[in-house]
Amino acid sequence: MSPDISARVVGLKGGRTLGGFWLIYGIFRIIASIWMLSFTPVATVMFGALLNRVPNPYPLMSAFHFIYAGWIVLSAASGILGVLAGISLLAGVGASRILAVVAALLAVPFIPVGTMLGTYTLVIFVPRE
């Protein structure tokens, strides 16, 4: 990392605010992951009710479980990295830029808050050269 980028991360005027936003977002993503995990049986029944006219619904149910598990894992990873990025931005650690960029890339698919926070973080921390 070049010295001018690390100085920009540590001396970022809104770094504490951005860190607070990442911390709050990360906590909500972890709660959403737990919520999705607890509603897995309900989601399975709801998706299965849509398949009553399909001749062979079993491959579709397997695909549903795979995709649903993927969204739970992505949500949990986004939340954990969001909390870590928030803590590192609040502390002003030099590695906060890398954590924030990775957290932003994982947060972009979660509309609308993850998209806004992730895009703003990428605009701030990705070098333009």
Question: How do the helices and strands follow one another from N- to C-terminus?
Answer: HHHHHH
Q: Distance between the terminal alpha carbons, to the nearest Å?
A: 13 Å
Q: Which sheet architecture does the biggest sheet show?
A: none
Total beta strand runs? 0
- Gyration radius, to the nearest Å? 18 Å
Mean pLDDT: 88
Low-pLDDT windows of residues: none
Specify the overall morphology: elongated
Residues in helix, %: over 70%
Layout of secondary structure:
Blueprint: H1 3-10, H2 15-38, H3 40-49, H4 58-91, H5 96-107, H6 113-125
Helix pairs in contact: 2-4, 2-6, 3-4, 4-5, 5-6
Detailed description of the structure:
The chain has one domain (3-125). The longest helix is centred in the middle third of the chain and has 34 residues, at 58-91. The mean pLDDT is 88. It is 78% helix and 0% strand. It is built from six helices and no strands. The chain has helices spanning 3-10, 15-38, 40-49, 58-91, 96-107, 113-125. With 129 residues, it is mostly helical. It starts with a helix and ends with a helix.
